[in-house]
Predict the structure.
Amino acid sequence: MATPVMAFAQIANECEADGLTPKNGERIATELAKVFGVKNTEVGIMRVDRSNLMFVFPPKLHNVGSIPLNTTGSVAARTATTKRAEIINNFAQTKHTSIFEAVELESKPKEIGKEHDHSIHMIQKLMSAPVVGGTGTVGVIQVCRKGQSAPSAGPDFTPQDLQKLVAVAGALAKCFK
């Protein structure tokens, strides 16, 4: 059986000509979700555009805005600028930029007479890895687990999970153009 890195290297080869289009971003996110046992809406793929990070996936976040690389409260910006991957298994308790968490990514029918509970969409656990190409950091890939609480969100991410994400990010660098 092919390793995840080999599988993503193949995807990168297939996506290289077109670059990181929304369609290719969705394909990559879907495969990452399978590897890490999360929903594809729990995968974030961002590309460096000048001095900002722009979401490629999920597509709904693309129009919400960008993340300046000098933002102090952003894990994604820190990942891009330091080129260091990290795991935060107590993410909901850490200070972070949360504007993107407020965007509804899954379309579920609203029950009549019930308010929507945004707490079920809170990021509880997060892995963040830089995508580094020949010109430096070209993007960031994040995988998270959402839920009302850390236990309900699923298992903690492990150092082995982070190693896998870093290796996959390296394999995908060539399609981040």
Q: What stands out?
A: The helical segments are 4-15, 22-36, 59-62, 75-82, 150-153, 159-172. Strands lie at 43-49, 52-57, 67-68, 86-88, 123-133, 136-146. Residues 99-103, 108-119 have pLDDT under 50 and may be disordered. The first strand starts at residue 43 and ends at 49.
